[in-house]
Batch of 2 targets.
Target 1
Amino acid sequence: MAIEFSSRVGRLPDYPVAGGYSLPDDVAMLASNESPWPPAPQVLEAAAKAAAHANRYPDPSNAALREALSRRYGVPANRIAVGNGSVDLLMAAGEALLEPGAELVYAWPAFSVYPHLPAASGATAIEVPLTADHKHDLDAMAAEITVATRLVIVCNPNNPTSTALPLDEITAFVEKVPPDVCLILDEAYIEFNLLDDPDASVDLLERHPNLVLLRTFSKAYGLAALRVGYALCGTESFVKAVHAVRQPFVVNAVASAAAIEALKHTDAVADRVEKTIVGRVELDEGLRALGIEPAESQANFCWFDLPESADEGEVVAGLSERGVLVRAGRALGREGALRVTYGTSAQNERFLAALGELL
Ligand SMILES: Cc1ncc(COP(=O)(O)O)c(C=O)c1O
């Protein structure tokens, strides 16, 4: 007899993980929207210093990290939640808000973890197709909100399509969402968005207690391996709810020390963002030279349809043979598309040369 698991385990979708973890260092890792540049030396020193006290449990309230985030954003620490990556907060939000009979609304294609929330909770997902230019259709999303809606997620800039909506459109949408419905603005890539000041959305929290801004140290801060995400919230009740459903020690002491130090090096973040935007211009121009029009990226990655004559699987395999890892659209919600993280200039050139050979 085999072990009998709960029915929810059978419902949970597999997260489409990227490969490449055991590949040699010279492979261009353009599949996971990470930073190609390592953390600042002071951040590594802070992590090493914290590791020396690894015999002690971390502070379960993560007070120092939440205080540091509070100073950075001007949001009171009691309205800031931290997590083991922002994915941890997303899943905790699903657990705290959803149950059978409840509905959640999000766009599709969007971040591949969102379908996990209805599967885990038994709630109903309303997936609203993106517009033809790969952006959120906020009017259509607003029209899907009913008395059963508990959670709405807007991914801005959107993964996997790289596109963003300007803050005035986001603001108009926030105003339409009923105050008893939680609205998560997933801003994992907000630092790379040139449409508005990346911190401008923080002001919305004062007027909208139902709003949560979800951010991460994994992208512009270059700390993906340490797993630190945070939620800037309109109300303390969200912080308490996600705290209640999780294990007591969500962010480890090494990760917390590194994140606190990283917040002091805004120059390093600005430098990474600037280099990414140079890469964005170079790589997108290179795609156009190959006859491909990418979506309008406001993120650290691009998204485009391959020419109809090309086979997605063959292109991804051919790139991999040439030492370049990218993500196939099929796993992300759109067959025939590719998602490619902007890397260093050398990696971007390598990708373009390889794609040119394959097409
Ligand atoms: C839109 C979006 N949100 C959240 C995350 C989660 O990031 P992390 O858990 O590393 O903070 C990602 C990661 O790729 C993402 O693309």
Target 2
Amino acid sequence: MSLESALRADIVEVGRRMYARGYTASNDGNISVRLGAERLLMTPKSVCKGFMSPDMMCITDLLGRKLEGDRDPSSEMLMHLEVYRQRPDVQAVVHAHPPTATGFAVAGIPLDRAVLAEVLTTLGSIPIAEYATPSTQELPDAVRKYIKAHDGMLLANHGALTVGSDVFAAYYKMETVEHFAKISLVARMLGRENLIAREELLRLQELRDTYGIKAPAPICSTEPASDEVCQVIQAPEGGGQRLVPDSPVAPGRLRLPLPSGGEDGEIRLTYRELSALIEDAVKSLK
Ligand SMILES: [Zn+2]
């Protein structure tokens, strides 16, 4: 099988997985890969990524001019072209709308907290590129700000973008972004998100080097200057600190005056008092 045939098959497979996992609906999302130094192979516009065949793909040059293919290239092609322009090391780009990560993108909450060691050693932080009208020049402009330092980012009120050394590497980063978003959501619903201390974070960064994990940029030690290429990650200085407070239903809020028998003593509440107490607890959860 030629390299081009293999890449066409890889794109079909990644599209199938994205659709099967619910990362795209209908004709959403797009995938591209470098085909040699001067050309790109990418998904066409207006097809469901779950049901593509290898012959559907388009070949364009690095300016997005179509060279081969019956169909026109993806409507988000400009964003892909910008990534390849800014990152010579990137071989493939994946864009999708995975629901939990996109929920964070809609809420305007970046996935940039030091929470999971695996995410910190691979993607690092996942920022949010500002909102831009899809398929216009605004989108590549928004992506440009973060792509030099990040392999994955959220797109405000839109979706997520990941890049990699091949099409599967880019796709697996999309899986990591969505998985991380789900875990972050559960932790926040539980009301507690213990962060990894900065000291440990820097230790994890050293592991990247030890295991040869390629990161596009180091973690910023302080607030970065505007031209500094590094990843901003929220991690508390020193051990045991948290940036995120405990659940609003902190034990203190619901504590009752101790009865005469101390903590083991019996208390009696009327039905009305108990209802009021439960109501108060439910309100403080909202
Ligand atoms: Zn999109």
